[in-house]
Design a protein that fits this description.
Helix content: 25-40%
Number of strands: 8
Radius of gyration: 18 Å
Distance between the termini: 29 Å
Structural class: alpha/beta
Strand content: 5-15%
Number of helices: 8
Shape: globular
Length: 273
């Protein structure tokens, strides 16, 4: 097994030859609406005829990864996120630990994944969710697709946990926001997309408890995953995304454009090298 903990940083575009790629892995981080940048990256990859054979994702990265593995178009991916309601009155619940009943999204997801199966996907997919009862992360790559997808993206306390085999699961990003592990032994060239990058903030951006809490959480997530980020052969991070709220649906198009423009620039640099 490849030991990513001993890797030197490899995403500096040095000694990388895209013509020698045998198999490509794609790792997509969590990050809410900022994850639309993943779709921008996928568009940039498609335009350069670069395709991943194995995909791993957490939270919104799991959702984008599933759509990519299902070979949905970029337009379909954007439509999925624009038309899927985040806050819908009929989805509210007082019977479950969360403001929104995550199970209400099963019907929405079936429109995109009618066979509801990992096996039906065109690319190998791995997604991670957090077992709240055992305090463990669990990867899903076989069997039923929709409920593990919902679990991976069920951010507490907004969305209720998802029950799978009598266990309650929630957002994969709680324990693993950048799920590199399933891809390490399956790909010769690993592309990482991290929409939870940490950039420098002006002190005016940290004026209240909510902003401080968000910043501290972001720093903790980044620190935990830093070593895995460095293990990618090609890593794309988008510091501009920090200006977009995690649940700000108005930022969908902007995050997508940031992802596309930045990924296109970095990929052109990679190919030129």
């Amino acid at each position: 097994m490849r030991n990513y903990s001993s890797y030197m940083p490899k995403h500096t575009l040095v000694n990388i030859d895209t013509n020698r790629m045998k198999s490509v892995g794609l790792v997509l981080s969590g990050g809410g609406v900022r994850g639309m940048a993943h779709i921008g990256l996928i568009k940039a990859l498609n335009e350069r005829n670069i395709s991943a054979q194995v995909v791993s994702g957490s939270s919104v990265g799991a959702l984008v990864g599933a759509l990519y593995a299902n070979e949905n178009s970029v337009d379909d991916m954007l439509t999925f996120f624009k038309e899927t309601p985040l806050f819908k009155y009929s989805f509210l619940t007082i019977l479950k630990p969360g403001f929104i009943d995550t199970d209400r999204y099963v019907k929405v997801f079936r429109a995109y994944f009618p066979e509801n199966s990992f096996k039906a996907l065109k690319r190998e997919l791995h997604i991670v969710a957090t077992n709240l009862q055992k305090g463990e992360q669990l990867f899903f790559s076989d069997g039923e697709l929709i409920r593990p997808l919902l679990a991976s993206a069920a951010l507490p306390p907004v969305f209720s946990p998802v029950e799978i085999e009598n266990q309650l699961f929630a957002d994969g990003g709680i324990m693993n926001n950048f799920p590199l592990e399933p891809v390490v032994d399956k790909a010769d060239f690993i592309i990482g997309s991290n929409v939870s990058a940490i950039g420098e903030l002006h002190k005016n951006a940290l004026k209240n408890s909510l902003q401080i809490t968000g910043r501290v959480t972001g720093l903790m997530i980044y620190a935990i995953n830093h070593q895995k980020l460095e293990a990618c052969d090609f890593l794309v991070e988008y510091e501009e995304l920090e200006k977009i709220g995690v649940l700000d649906r108005k930022g969908i198009e902007k995050a997508y454009q940031i992802g596309y423009e930045y990924a296109s620039k970095k990929l052109d640099e990679l190919i030129k090298k």
